[in-house]
Amino acid sequence: MPGHLILVRPHMSLLDGLVVARYLHQIGGHCGYLFAVDPDYARHPFWRRALTWYGLVNGHQRMVALDQRSPMALRVILRTLEAGHGVVLFPQGTGISRPGRPDLPGAPWLARKTRCLVTEIRLDHSGWIPQVAYQGRDRRATHGVA
Question: Which pairing describes strands 86-89 and 34-37: parallel, antiparallel, or unpaired?
Fold first, then answer.
């Protein structure tokens, strides 16, 4: 059974991942997601510990450093989805200073390859702390997904 891919847009704040992890924990039933995280934070001695702790107290969420220059994390994400688990991905990648940037090609490829369930989450950045403004319905991945 394929996993569940959650695509979060727009990615405009360093708080986005924290807000989504907390949201998934609060709505229940969405525990243990693997979050793709900028390697500058996922590998940093302080931020790695802080994010790991935050993930544990908010539904046992985990993280993997997703470096756009290296396919290693993409393989971990692919295996996670193929094993039937969930992944949270910010398809626009890094570069939060450019909120209108297009999606990178990884999310549609993952969805097609695994035929996983795909859910979109839209964030509202009008306040100081981002809020989940919309969660779309789950849909099975197809050729034009994401």
Answer: parallel
